[in-house]
Amino acid sequence: MKKAVLIFYDARMLGHEPSGWDTQHPEWSDAVKAMIAHQYPEASLETYAYPERPERLTAIVERLKAEPVDGQGWRVPMPVTHAQLQRVHSVEYLAYIESLVGASGWLAQDTTAVSPESVVAARLAAGAGISAIEAIASGEGRHTFCIVRPPGHHASTDDARGFCLYNNIAVAAMHAREVLGFRRVMIWDWDMHHGNGTQDIFYDRPDVLVVDSHCEAPFYPGTGKLTETGTGAGVGYHLNVPFPRGSGNAALLDVLEQVVRPAARAFRPELILISAGFDCHYLDQTCAMDETGFAALTQHMCALAQEVCDDRLVVMLEGGYNAQALSDSAHATVRALAGETITDINVLPVDEGRAAVAEAARFHADTIAALGRPSAPPDRTSGSR
Fold this sequence. Notes:
Structural class: alpha/beta
Number of strands: 10
CATH architecture: 3-Layer(aba) Sandwich
Strand content: 5-15%
Distance between the termini: 44 Å
Organism: Guyparkeria halophila
Family: Belongs to the histone deacetylase family.
Number of domains: 1
Radius of gyration: 19 Å
Protein name: Histone deacetylase
Strand order of the largest sheet: 2-1-5-10-9-6-7-8
């Protein structure tokens, strides 16, 4: 059945445009060059450009306008307010980010950087998720897709990392909880990189269940081990699924079948949010997914949302740095959100990620089972990281 898909986008997010190496911190540039040479030995450091660039969004938007999906509707997000950000980020951190309006430069050794319009873009990116959830709550639609930058899942309460200034998905989840009254929110982060910021923000909370599938440490940011399951009241509400590089569509579909779906059925969220990084695409040179895999994941998540949370589903862009991969994957995702049936899925002859996913599913089995009981999930790790 065809469904409406509300797409939240504002061209002012293209104004976030850092560039080049950091001449003020040559030691940071040297460290990043060493990291790139190690992770991507064929990459040219002479032609380096800031990976989180405006073309990431224009590739998606131009494709959706050239080949519109039946049912898509464009919306302009409201910029986030200071009060909305303060539910996630510290007052001191927000003052620091606001002080960067009109500035340029790197904020961290991992290349997180700003240009003069970056904070304006970040306000819109963080506001998009709130706008999407408000549209769902008002009955305007059920499936939403947020085309945003800078991304958010590496930003913690008081730290900018991994190209991220505000944690967009966390800001959206907290708005859903504290303003709109959604008692239980579930997040699946399928970006290739572990969402360390999202984990830190919700690590002690039992009202937000986070499943995070990602390339295993020491791949950036080096967090997200199986044993990182929460602390205090939040023990058991964070399920990490690390897998090796080279994992493909079958491995991610296993994450859905063996971890995400049973966890959602036990937890019974009232809203599902997806941190949708498309950097597991093979054109990003680390994993082996393609757009058929992302389409299949989205199709299954639509069915799951219909089953457990009255079809409320927000998909928010995180990473993905190859323009063609972003264009293909985002378009396939929107088609699936609109109800298009996916039948052809490309799979590797051997997908080594499947064994790692099966191991994670076994590790989390008791915790997932306990999500459906009144008592807290079992403490498997004493909150160790």
